[in-house]
Amino acid sequence: MVILLTILHVIVAVFLILVVLLQTGKRADLAGAFGGGGSQTAFGARGAATLLSRLTAWSAGIFMATSLVLSLLSSSGSTGRGSVLDSVPVKAPATAPAIPATPAPTPAPPPAK
To answer: Using one digit for the tens of pLDDT, what is the confidence trace for 29-57?
Structure first.
């Protein structure tokens, strides 16, 4: 299941890249170079949705859906793989070096004057 979704995800990603690159820019004409066209609206004139813009919207939606499903499947652990840290053995905490049982010798008293 995960492999099939991953293959679909990659195909949709490549398709989305191609569809976006095939589209022309919003102001690709000569009037757009000099600031003309669409001065009454905030973002320019909006024409009818073309086939490429519909394909872009659908492929973007499928891409987001497959991304969400793949992330949910990977976080739930249904892929059969755990975390990388699951394979690390747990070590005992390091202890301080042993303290000798004999006390240190007492220093000699200073010589009398």
So the answer is: 555 556 655 554 555 556 667 888 899 99
Helices (H) and strands (E) in the chain, counts: 3, 0
How far from 50 is each of 23, 47, 58, 92, CA to CA, in Å?
A: 10, 8, 13, 65
Domain residue spans of the chain: 1-24+50-75
**Predicted TM-score (pTM) of this structure:** 0.54
How far, in Å, CA of 28 to CA of 34, rounded?
Answer: 11
Q: Residue 104, SS3? A: coil
**Geometric angle at alpha carbon 86, from 82 and 90, rounded to 5°:** 175
Which residue blocks in 1-113 are alpha helix, DSSP H?
Answer: 2-22, 30-33, 51-76
Cα–Cα distance measured from residue 84 to residue 25, given in angstroms and rounded to the nearest whole number: 45
